[in-house]
Design a protein that fits this description.
- It is a single chain.
- The protein has eleven helices and 14 strands.
- The chain is of the alpha/beta class and about 325 residues long.
- The chain has a domain of about 210 residues: Rossmann fold (3-Layer(aba) Sandwich), CATH 3.40.50.
- Helix 3 packs parallel to helix 4, helix 7 packs across helix 11 and helix 8 runs antiparallel to helix 9.
Length: about 325
């Protein structure tokens, strides 16, 4: 197999690159010239430099490629560059689909998100669920939904594309929750917000396994929710506390957290600074709840992920060993 990975230097993309190489695949990675390539330091892959909307670079990257894995995305909540997010997540996805169609690749695996379902209000949903939320919770929510619409449109035109929809992606090198875990393991995380918030969890390497299984087994046009299970934030810290003996963080009062978000939001916009709390982040902590059922991936693809407990324990152990 010769495979292209867009966003090859990213969290998910880099894990996918190594997994493909371990299976003997020839791997091409599309990255920007300004990209940090530290995650790819020990890989042997062909790099093609270009923006995700650069069709010439995409065409070069897809020469002789059998399978395209589209993982590139602008992932952020809070104060974001909405125009850039639109360009990367929406127009970038359109460019990948168009060039893949013109290049005649055999399979495209698109890394989407369970967020496309919108706020399910705590209802556990599967791939057949139709979004009920009529507005959008964030620029990320909007752009990933629009990107999925583009992918589905191309699938209806017989492009052999399959969508995987991960929940929260965890790993020792996770750029989002990883730093929080590091602070917890050092005993520095004394306060946390939204202990009741439910989060779906999947280990990044299990997500990679699901993507590879989808490439191997799935008919075109299918969607697969990828989640090992879910826990509240409080339950996550309780599990980690049992393993490490580190006390769980205290729960910050909701009123104080909301006040802080309302105060920091305009300051962040004025100073072009990403505050730890903003109105958008507060919304995700307290008001938005997306819950999913990943039975289809287990049954149709034979996907066998780590349990949520195993995922958290493994990550904590890796972080402790790395200091």
């Amino acid at each position: 197999m010769k495979a292209l990975v867009t966003g090859a230097n990213g969290f998910t993309g880099s894990h996918l690159v190594y997994a493909l190489q371990q299976r003997g695949a020839q791997v091409v990675g599309l990255v920007r010239k300004s990209s940090n390539l530290s995650r790819l330091a020990n890989s042997q892959l062909q790099l093609v430099y270009g923006d995700i909307t650069d069709r010439d670079a995409l065409q070069t990257a897809m020469q002789g490629v059998n399978t395209v894995f589209h993982t590139a995305a602008y992932v952020e909540l809070g104060l974001v560059n909405a125009d850039k997010m639109q360009r990367v997540n929406v127009e970038g996805t359109r460019a990948v689909m168009e060039v893949a169609q013109a290049s005649g690749v055999s399979k495209i695996i698109y890394c989407s998100t369970i967020g496309i379902f919108g706020d399910t209000k705590g209802e556990v949903v599967d791939e057949t669920f139709q979004r009920r939320q009529t507005d959008f919770s964030s620029a990320y929510d909007r752009t990933k939904y629009q990107a999925q619409q583009i992918v589905d449109e191309f699938a209806s035109q017989d492009l052999p594309v399959v969508s995987v929809l991960p929940s929260g992606i965890f790993g020792a090198d996770d750029p989002h929750f990883g730093p929080v875990l590091q602070q917890f393991l050092k005993g520095r995380l004394k306060l946390w917000a939204g202990g009741d918030r439910i989060t779906g969890i999947v280990h990044v390497d299990d997500l990679v396994d699901a993507m590879l299984l989808a490439a191997e087994k799935s008919p075109p046009g299918e969607h697969y929710i990828i989640s090992a299970g879910e826990l509240s934030t409080r339950e996550m810290f309780e599990l980690l506390s049992q393993q490490t003996g580190i006390p769980i963080p205290a729960e910050a009062p909701k009123s104080i957290v909301k006040l802080a978000g309302n105060l920091l939001d305009p300051i962040g916009r004025l100073l072009q600074w990403q505050p730890p709390l903003s109105r958008e982040r507060i919304h995700y902590i307290y008001d938005r709840c997306v819950r999913v059922d990943a039975t289809k991936a287990r049954q149709k693809l034979g996907w066998k992920p780590r349990s949520v407990k195993e995922t958290l324990s493994e990550i904590a152990k890796a972080l402790q060993e790395s200091g």
